[in-house]
Prior knowledge:
This protein is α+β, with helices and mostly antiparallel strands. The protein has 21 helices and 25 strands.
Amino acid sequence: MRNSTNRRDKKLPLWAIISIVVALLAVIGGGIYGYTAWAESRDEKAAQKTADTFIAALEKQNYKVMSKVVSEESLTAIDYTKESMAERYETVYGGVGAAELKVSELSLTQEKGADHYTLSYKVNMETALGKLEEKNYETTLSKTDDDYQVDWNTHLIFPDMEPTDKISITTTVGERGDILDKNGSPLATEGTSWQAGLQPSALGEGEQKTTILNKIAETYDVKVEELEKLLEQGWVTPDSFVPFKGLTQDAELPQIPGVLYQETTARMYPLNEAASHLIGYVGEVSAEDIEKDPTLRTGDVIGKSGLEATYDDRLRGQKGGRIEIKTSDGELKTVLQETEVKNGEDITLTIDTDIQKAAYDQLTGESGSAVFMNPTDGSLLALVSTPSYDANLMSSGISSEDYQAYVDDPKSPFLARYASGYAPGSTFKVITAGIGLDAGTIIPTETQKIEGLSWQKDASWGDYKVTRVKDNPSVNLADAFAYSDNIYFAREALEMGAKVYQDGLKNYIFGEDLKLPIAMNPAQISNSGTLDSEGLLADTAFGQGELLLNPIQQAASYTPFANGGKLVYPKLTADQETAESKQAVTPESAAIIKEDLVQTVEKAYGSSHKLAVIDKQIAAKTGTAETKESEIEGEDAETNGFLLAFDAENSSYLMVAMIEGKSSGSVIDAMLPMLEKMDTFQ
């Protein structure tokens, strides 16, 4: 009896049993809840990863990556594959020139109890017709195994597009703006030419097509692969005209099966070679151009060089046209985009056509350049470089043989010499004089006693000596200009010292960006930026050493001596804003140098005396810069010749002309006939 009673005493009370049951249920429930929460978190992360991959690939237009996260079931339902999906994007987006895709308002949600996620987002993009109105997209992400994939259909290309719909784009190209000179005369304008195009239906098939394409490629100097790529474009139909080559108005038009010709507008350059470096040329877009800017389409014309390229966006204007979605039967379903055509903008330069042409004619046959500038307002009146190239031929479609001839020409006809750096030679002495006069180290009436044709400060210079052309025992500033005496200016620079000289050079344009629409390097004092030796200081004083200025920079640097001491920054377009002019030298110093340069022309022994025949007061300074010492003893070094000349009466122009491999005398001979008639250009 006692044992039985004890067993009854050990029974758990009801409340304890209930507590245990509740605790067990709580543990089980917590486990289930924890697992569910973990599973939901895992699913959400997986779905988000898929969505992020899809959207990132969309913005990059990497359609193959997009297809990797798309469900096979959704593609099969509309008779697509991953490959055909990517191709569909390429065809549609490529056809309309889709670019700069930007996704916004991305949302990934899941309704309670649902086994899928809903993905919604908005897309902004550019097309060949400009900015497309923002589009809204929505789809689902379905679970497959432990992952999620996008349920895809053609609504994700454009919201209204069904699997069998087609995209259509029609464009109208606005007229390209003209490039005009200061008086409104065209430097680049519209003319007419021929366009050669393929007619797919007339090319035949198989071997016949191959034979014809090879003949076309040989005749027009194009690659068969390029022709085939053009024919594969999404918009091409059997009866399309597929342009592949531009031809000049007077070109022969061979009759070849599968080739048609259309007369079309073409860019024309009235001055042609006389201004080709400056104006440049246009050409049809290349595959590389389209890759950089997908809004371009085959057949589009853009600026390829010069101002045509620099101002292409302004000159080209905006296409007009419509992008439509059509049914498989060709019926209009939706107009996605419609824009009006806008003609390009005309751009007016400061260039004077007559001066440009005359300067080019005077330098024809030479490797040289000429810059004409108004020294009072900075207007560039002419920018000439010789030899040159045929811009009209480049624009209409130059053959590879003719192009290679330009490339191989040792005289570098593509080089814009007015924007290339040179040691300026003795023309730079005007700047040395200005610094010395302002510093008080040069006294115009004082003379230097110099013996012989060479000089060095002392034996510490070793073999280095400064040389001059004429042996004059007593030289003042005016005579130093007239005789172009290197020793005089070297001594004066050494007397003022490197610090004073370099501080004076800061008043000019060294290291500055002139903000012209022309590619050029800044002018430099030396390779290191300082004059860290007496020899370098001496050489710099007469325009040698490590000085590098292009002819435009030289012209700007010499404006103070034609403009009361004020340096004026150059400008090339009528609406160009330039830096404010600055007082580089005092008006008094500028006047002294100007008069000395006039005397350099008028004195019989002056280095610029040949210009004295001009029936107007001219200020001028010659320069012959050594470029390479002769390897043969007794022979002269190689030189570049320079001439600075400006109107000393009215400051209507300032010219810097240069001929490579010649002396300054050759430059005077070349430019004198033009300078004699400068009044006729005003």
